[in-house]
Amino acid sequence: xxxxxxxxxxxxxxxxxxxxxxxxxxxxxxxxxxxxxxxxxxxxxxxxxxxxxxxxxxxxxxxxxxxxxxxxxxxxxxxxxxxxxxxxxxxxxxxxxxxxxxxxxxxxxxxxxxxxxxxxxxxxxxxxxxxxxxxxxxxxxxxxxxxxxxxxxxxxxxxxxxxxxxxxxxxxxxxxxxxxxxxxxxxxxxxxxxxxxxxxxxxxxxxxxxxxxxxxxxxxxxxxxxxxxxxxxxxxxxxxxxxxxxxxxxxxxxxxxxxxxxxxxxxxxxxxxxxxxxxxxxxxxxxxxxxxxxxxxxxxxxxxxxxxxxxxxxxxxxxxxxxxxxxxxxxxxxxxxxxxxxxxxxxxxxxxxxxxxxxxxxxxxxxxxxxxxxxxxxxxxxxxxxxxxxxxxxxxxxxxxxxxxxxxxxxxxxxxxxxxxxxxxxxxxxxxxxxxxxxxxxxxxxxxxxxxxxxxxxxxxxxxxxxxxxxxxxxxxxxxxxxxxxxxxxxxxxxxxxxxxxxxxxxxxxxxxxxxxxxxxxxxxxxxxxxxxxxxxxxxxxxxxxx
Length: 547
Ligand code: OOB
Known about the structure:
Elements lengths: L9 H9 L8 H12 L3 E5 L2 E4 H16 L8 E4 L5 H13 L2 E4 L6 H11 L3 E5 L7 H11 L5 E5 L8 E2 H10 L12 E6 L9 E5 H14 L7 E4 L6 H5 L2 H7 L3 E4 L5 H11 L3 E4 L4 H10 L9 E5 L5 H11 L2 E8 L2 E5 L6 H6 L3 E2 L5 E5 L11 E7 L11 H7 L6 E9 L5 E6 L3 E4 L2 E4 H9 L6 E9 L3 E9 L7 H10 L10 E5 L12 H8 L6 E2 L4
Parallel strand pairs: 1-11, 3-4, 3-5, 4-8, 5-6, 6-7, 10-11, 10-12, 12-13, 13-14, 24-25
Antiparallel strand pairs: 1-2, 8-9, 14-15, 15-16, 17-18, 18-19, 19-20, 21-22, 23-24, 25-26
Helix pairs in contact: 2-3, 2-4, 3-4, 3-7, 5-6, 8-10, 12-13
């Protein structure tokens, strides 16, 4: 029988259990235990109000019973595509209680990506929020369901609308009358599926088990010194791994603290919540940091409760890093993580220089890391090489992707991150580049090949290449090179066509250029290095009319 999920070798797993990294608990147990210990403490604050641990536990239980009645069973895959609102956390824990596997999907995903995810996973349900106008997620969900017969249930935070489906509120009410769901999962079972930034044309899913995710969250909470007084502000999308377990929502709940959901990442919204709720820690991608620093100068809000600003998802430049402490009056922590597992943190007591110039070191003493050259030989400290890793919370294989696994893992189970790093003499990592064919646009990862396949489908395009180039606002912006004899389509034309094809808006190239012929390397691959140099103005290409 085909195995959907590759686990750790039995002996390794036994070692992780013996060492106490993996506990005999599920994520559902974690919530139940916290609710039993201190039910009246505030677990969650959002635009809908405040939920104590007991409320959250009770609501998750009712919704679990309601969802089970649809039915959604243990092991079923469910696309969970909600923004930063209360329903996300309640639904997440409801699904974990059933033992169903949420697929954590960004609200910004397009129908193409969602269809591919539903097909790969055989998902039976899709949870979205009610929206308005052209971008109403309910419309997209209906389209995805037409393309994927496995998707039998549409569940909506809000009004399901004329297309039908179930509202979360109605399911919760129905669940109050239904038999309670008893925990459906074991600690070693997959708990959820995360999206990989990816380097392939189709999305990849990352299975994370209850035990490994619980460890990731708890160990992160410890490194960040979280406790019951912690107030964590979730600014980045809640379905991102950074917001989930680094230490994020799950780490904060594990520590008995309070999670506050920020409905948008603007500093004005965030600062209002910092003041009102006494936020102690939050997390940003580098592209947001300058806006926060600018607003901090202007604001009349009291930000003195903020102790730690985490920054990660892409490289933070040293100069901006040095501004954080003095201008925001809190400690900076750099986080170099990945949905596949490994989290690196600068420590709160690290010297200023380390915090401002490195991306930290691995979370766990059991994280094994190698920095290797092109032949896979370890390089000495101070030399760049690819980062390989394995450990108690790093995947051993993608979900249903054996061919891809052969490229992504070494025979002895190390995950090839595709990141180029330098390890300092102290053991801290500095991210110096990337060998994976990806654009990191404001922390959102775009697989070049996925966009290239869509570009190739445009009229008169013979060949296409997408590259990331440095950008002061986004970190990197995406530039598409189109090989065409016809007049080059404008950027807005390309945008319209790609959105029509169901691509997510953040994957639409920021700039479009025409070339008579794409440059090739000696072995005949597209020479992306040369293309990046073109953008830097070293050799001329033709920007599109309204690029
Ligand atoms: C986080 O997770 P993903 O899965 O969206 O992206 C992982 C990739 C890394 O392989 C690396 O290429 C890049 O994002 N990255 C960084 C970075 N943090 C992530 N590159 C340079 N400096 C950093 N600090 O992005 C993620 C997951 C958990 C915690 C934090 C980030």
